[in-house]
Amino acid sequence: MKDNVRALAAEFKKFLSTRQEDDLTPAAFTQAAAHVSEPARTHAETEQQDHLTIEFARASKKQTSSHCSATLSTVTQETAEKEQNGALNESFSQETATTMSKAEKQALLDQIAEEIKACHRCPLGATRLNAVPGEGNPNATLMFIGEGPGFDEDHKGRPFIGRAGQLLDKMIAAMGLKREDVFIGNIAKCHPMVNPENPEAHGNDRAPNAGEIAVCRKFIERQIAAISPKYVVALGGVAAKALISDTNSLGALRGKFHLLHLDSVELKKPVKIIATYHPAALLRNPNWKKDAWADLQMVMAEMGLKRPQG
Questions:
Q1: CA distances, 270 to each of 83, 94, 182, 275, 303 (Å)
Q2: Is 231 helix (H, G, I), strand (E, B) or coil?
Q3: Strand, coil or helix: what is 48?
């Protein structure tokens, strides 16, 4: 069974590697499914979708500790996309973002949010109840980024508002901050479901797959560019691997700072990112809370924060 799943993953990865991001439309996903050999697909379809992890090609690592002075600019929007989403064709540097007023940053984030709500470029756009762009302080020094919305978020259109979100609020408060002080978002902006035909079912969550991340990641990257934070906390292995550009396990990635690596923008100023456990994982395994708190304390030390008394 595992060999069949690996065969499916390898063929799907090969298919995606030959496609540009703009080719990843719903029709392309159907074509990808048809491209995969029938025996591998027949066996793999018996597996839960969230048990299949497909690594996908990243842009070459142009950023290293000695190359953080690269120019940051947003990817030029295609004319067709502008017509479809009403998106403005904007380019700006990270340095420019730091000089923008809070109102200007908020206007830019609002524009990105509208594009997200209008996006149907992958199958998640057809099954979601609400897109979940993200929310928070446009001038945030710190961003929290998870993998994708769940049941509660899909129903309300806001990030991290379920049980995991309530725990995240407590984690933020323990750092001496409020939810309004930071920006909270996800790599995927729509709810990935095991059974898309039943969005009202609880426990219907799964991690976004490689194709969905490839289509959607430009949105979180543009949000990062607009906010220009100094620190990012990646919540869970999916977000950590996508943003750190490292396929190691979460256990190997957490406990230290990395440089943030983006595909659609290049950073002129370094942004430090640290990986820790997703709040949902902490609810399942409270023994990990001690390690998660140690990760957050590293961020607090960098930011000069002290835990509130009492």
A1: 34, 10, 18, 16, 15
A2: strand
A3: coil
> Residue 220 belongs to what domain range?
62-303
Q: Are residues 240 and 99 in the same domain?
A: yes
* Backbone Cα Rg of the chain: 19
pLDDT (tens digit, 9 = 90+) per residue, 29-68?
A: 445 444 444 433 333 333 333 333 334 334 434 333 333 3
- 195 C-beta neighbours (distance < 10 Å), count: 11
pLDDT, mean over the chain: 79
71-86 pLDDT, tens digit per residue, is: 333 333 443 444 344 3
Tens-digit pLDDT profile for residues 239-255: 999 999 888 999 999 99
Tell me which amino acid residue 172 is.
Answer: I
Q: 133: how many CB neighbours lie within 10 A of its CB? A: 22
The CATH code of the domain that includes 153 is 3.40.470.10
Residue 53 is assigned to a structural domain of this protein: no
Residues in the chain, how many? Answer: 310
Task: Provide CB contacts within 8 A for 46, sequence distance 6+.
Answer: 1
Does one domain contain both 160 and 202? yes
Are 117 and 208 in a shared domain?
A: yes
- The CA distance from 267 to 63, in Å, is 8
Please indicate, yes or no, whether residues 24 and 148 belong to a single structural domain of this protein.
Answer: no
DSSP class of residue 295? H
What is the distance between the alpha carbons of residues 303 and 291, in angstroms, rounded to a whole number? 19
Q: Tell which phi-psi region holds residue 160, choosing left (phi > 0), alpha (psi between -120 and 50) or beta.
A: left
For residues 255-274, give the mean pLDDT. Answer: 90
